[in-house]
């Protein structure tokens, strides 16, 4: 599957999810036995796949064209998130684990594990309570022992740093499936980023180069001024390259 077909498929799945949230399925008149759960996506050992596929400049240009955004604007997002590379020096997807998100998810879905996660410094209530370590993977691996899916949802992944909890808006049924694809190739990482931009309606802001609006939608409202400034600086850097 080429990258545009992959993006189209992911966007379709994300749109189906959005539609399902807007229009809940009717309750069937006859009880239906639920189908067995299907596990999609298998994480590689240590999040590393030897020879994982890398992006080309043509891939980035093709995706920008598919989204209808200026190449330099699209590159600005990639530069701001990961300086243009989706893998770290150990060949793992670039990743940032967010303890405040893990706290929120545990509190809502696995409260019995929350106190232990707080004690082990895997979860805290507010963003910025502690500085990030140079490498988030040791903390992530400990969090996976508490709850794999919630741990993966609590981290941002790959070249576009799409948050695992947004997996459905990136076209995936689970964070496990999203991360497994992110481990396999930068192309999949870029497809996830593009699908998320399309599904959240952020394409028009990027086309207008409305950095503040894009920053608020893509990165949250807490750091809009800083993030928007980085986007604009990187836009000019990419426009000159």
Could you characterize the architecture of this molecule?
- With 241 residues, this protein is mainly alpha-helical.
- It has a domain at 1-23 and 49-88 and 159-164 and 187-241.
- It is built from twelve helices and three strands.
- It has a three-stranded antiparallel sheet with strand order 1-2-3.
- A hairpin with a 4-residue loop joins strand 2 and strand 3 (162-163).
- Helix 1 packs parallel to helix 9 and helix 2 (57-67) packs parallel to helix 9.
- The longest helix is centred in the N-terminal third of the chain and has 20 residues, at 3-22.
- The model is unreliable at 31-39 (pLDDT under 50).
Let me know the largest β-sheet.
Answer: 3 strands, antiparallel
Cα radius of gyration in angstroms: 18 Å
Number of helices: 12
Strand content: under 5%
Give the rounded overall mean pLDDT.
92
Helical fraction: 40-55%
The H-and-E topology, N to C, reads as HHHEHHHHEEHHHHH
Q: What general outline do the C-alpha atoms trace? A: globular
Alpha-carbon distance between the termini?
A: 30 Å
**Weakly predicted, low-confidence segments:** 31-39
Q: How would you summarize the topology of this molecule?
A:
Layout: H1 3-22, H2 57-67, H3 71-82, E1 95-97, H4 99-109, H5 114-119, H6 137-146, H7 148-153, E2 155-157, E3 162-163, H8 175-184, H9 186-199, H10 203-208, H11 211-219, H12 224-240
Give a nutshell description of this structure.
By secondary structure, the chain is mainly alpha-helical. It contains 12 helices and 3 strands.
Q: Notable features of this structure?
A:
3 strands, globular, 241 residues, single chain
């Amino acid at each position: 599957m080429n990258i545009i077909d992959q993006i189209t498929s992911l966007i379709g799945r994300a749109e189906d999810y959005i539609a399902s949230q807007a229009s809940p399925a009717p309750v069937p008149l006859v009880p239906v036995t639920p189908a067995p759960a299907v596990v999609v996506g298998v994480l590689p050992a240590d999040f590393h796949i030897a020879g994982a596929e890398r992006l080309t400049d043509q891939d980035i240009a093709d995706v920008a064209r598919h989204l209808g955004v200026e190449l330099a604007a699209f590159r600005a997002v990639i530069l701001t998130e990961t300086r243009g590379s989706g893998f770290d020096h150990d060949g793992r997807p670039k990743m940032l684990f967010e303890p405040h998100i893990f706290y929120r998810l545990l509190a809502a879905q696995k409260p019995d594990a929350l106190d232990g996660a707080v004690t082990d410094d895997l979860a805290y209530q507010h963003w910025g309570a502690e500085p990030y370590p140079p490498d988030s993977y040791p903390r992530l691996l400990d969090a996976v022992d508490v709850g794999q899916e919630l741990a993966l949802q609590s981290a941002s992944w790959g070249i576009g740093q799409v948050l695992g909890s947004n997996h459905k808006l990136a076209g995936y049924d689970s964070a496990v499936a999203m991360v497994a694809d992110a481990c396999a190739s930068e192309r999949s990482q870029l497809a996830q980023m593009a699908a998320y931009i399309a599904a959240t309606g952020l394409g028009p802001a990027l086309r207008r180069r409305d950095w503040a609006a894009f920053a608020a939608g893509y990165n949250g409202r807490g750091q809009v001024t800083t993030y928007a400034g980085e986007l604009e600086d990187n836009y000019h850097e990419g426009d000159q390259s």
